[in-house]
Amino acid sequence: MQQSTFKNTYILGISFISALGGYLFGFDFAVISGALPFLQKQFALDAYWEGFATGSLALGAIIGCVVAGQIADKRGRRPGLMLAAGLFALSSLAMALSPNREVFIVARLVAGIGVGMASMLSPMYISEIAPAGIRGRLVAMNQLTIVLGILITNLVNYTLRNNGDDAWRWMFALGAVPSGLFLLGAWLLPESPRWLVKNNQELKAMLILQKIGDIKFADESLISIKKSLEGVTKINYGDALKKAVLPAVLIGIGLAVFQQFCGINTVFNYAPKIFQSIGASKDDQLLQTVFIGAVNVVFTLLAMLLVDKLGRKPLMLIGAGGLCVLYVIIVQLLFSGSPMVSWFLLAAIGTYAMSLAPVTWVLISEIFPVKVRAAAIAIAVISLWAAYFILVFTFPILFEKLKENTFYIYAVICAAGFIFVLFKVKETKGKTLEEVEYNMPVH
Predict the structure, then answer these.
(1) pTM of this prediction?
(2) CATH number for position 80
(3) What is the per-residue DSSP string for 1-63?
(4) Is 378 part of any domain?
């Protein structure tokens, strides 16, 4: 049987542009780490306000996911990506110019709306334009731009560290640059073929499918998409909670919450605080964030090579089990004040970067039935951001009270996550989105 051929340059190009939404995520995720030592002094932040200022991004992201789900369904994926970029540009400047704590937190919440929209729409868009055989790598590209955003932002933060008490303002203002580029790129993107078919624009969908692959691929994809959309009227959140699809939605929520409660993002957001606890200087604290960003990039590239070869489930199990063991070791090293803790924290970052970080996004973009994908992805990503808020809000308070023992909590969660993945998550490697749907249990 003749195999379809694909126009890889075009596919990579539009996937990369869409994945720039991940860069915005990475920027705002990392910029707070470098800025916190300055913000603590500027706005007199205690443990409570430190956690809330960091976590306010997640509260905005929850709003962004709800808005993105509606826009993605009614207006399309492309307009949603453009709106996310615009909000991010404005909020970056607003944070940089904030005169007080309250204005800063509101501006960071608005940034979160843009980040939340992008975090949902970018992997959704890529999963809907990517051929099944390379979809995992392309969706993982979204994670690659996230980690590149983290690394570049950490480098910029480190470079600006000695620019006076207002260095943090430049750290945030520079976010307007990538968001402007993303806005331009999103304007050039084609609309998702699945959204076009759902909205009775088959000719436009066919033309885009022919840009992605040959006529055989376009014809087969169009038939498959139409079959998956049979009987669909209006998508809403209620549809995603119906008995037939609820198992997949609950698994998606479980994966999303576990990705955050595994605890590694405390290292990304609070690396200076962790290293301060073993006596590191401010320069060394910020330098460690650069090392963390570099390891993150290298192991994300490894994940992109493995996700369509080794599969989703084995990588998730490696991540959960590996982090559980590493956290136990990290507690002992933090307790003794050993500088070796840096190496094990980097090992934990690497383990997360090649497993839970990218693969969770891949699975969330794959496991939901096409008919309710927009709403189901929104529910899962809202759950992810809610878990992120709880994690980063509670960490300064827990670390103040429990110190290094805080990481024992995350070790127990990782052990539970290993069991969850082992028994509840099915492999989706190499299957089309429609095949994943047809294999869903029907009750």
Answers:
(1) 0.79
(2) 1.20.1250.20
(3) -PPP-B-HHHHHHHHHHHHHHHHHHHHHHHHHHHHHHHHHHHHT--HHHHHHHHHHHHHHHHH
(4) yes
